[in-house]
Amino acid sequence: MADHKEASVTLPSIAASVAAARRHVSSVLTDWGLPSDAEVADKVRLIVSELATNAVQHTRGMSPTFTVEVVLDRDERLRIGVTDSHPRFPRRLPAAVQQDNGRGMIIIRCLMAESGGRLSVTPTAEGGKTVWIALPWPAPVH
């Protein structure tokens, strides 16, 4: 077993990159032993989609790329971070019933709560931010 594994990908801040980020993370998790049909894999794919969408939509052209990092610490904790170069941290927005968007962070917080995970945001040295999620790792590592 490895004490630490990590993988990352940097993508252009365009809509098509959301699916690419999701595929990348899915592939990494499968390589690390998480079955693609595991419930936590579905949650992670949704979370990555929401974080990547935020990196594309809410940076208002100030972040030409975003980076997705996947880290497994001591075969116990999975961390996924999405980094962009926009300085504004995510905000909780009221999600009106008829609103088509604006629920991403609410969805992520709910998934973190039910999975025993947590969400955090850290500034980068370059003036941007990384939105991190951390979850218990449910699979043996190959």
Structure characterization notes:
Pfam families: HATPase_c_2. Residues 13-133 form the Histidine kinase/HSP90-like ATPase domain. GO terms for molecular function: protein serine/threonine kinase activity. The chain has 142 residues and is α+β, with helices and mostly antiparallel strands. The chain has one domain (5-136): Histidine kinase-like ATPase, C-terminal domain (Heat Shock Protein 90, 2-Layer Sandwich). It contains three helices and five strands, in the order βααββαββ. The protein has helices spanning 16-31, 39-57, 104-115, and strands spanning 4-12, 65-73, 77-84, 118-123, 129-136. The protein has a five-stranded antiparallel β-sheet with strand order 1-2-3-5-4, with helices on one face. α1 runs antiparallel to α2. The radius of gyration is 15 Å and the shape is globular. The N and C termini lie close together (7 Å).
**Low-confidence region ranges:** none
Describe the sheet with the most strands: 5 strands, antiparallel
Which sequence of strands runs across the widest sheet?
1-2-3-5-4
Q: From N to C, what is the helix and strand string?
A: EHHEEHEE
CA-based shape: globular
N- to C-terminal separation? 7 Å
Task: Give a short overview.
This protein has 142 residues and is an alpha+beta fold. It has helices spanning 16-31, 39-57, 104-115, and strands at residues 4-12, 65-73, 77-84, 118-123, 129-136. It has one domain (5-136): Histidine kinase-like ATPase, C-terminal domain (Heat Shock Protein 90, 2-Layer Sandwich).
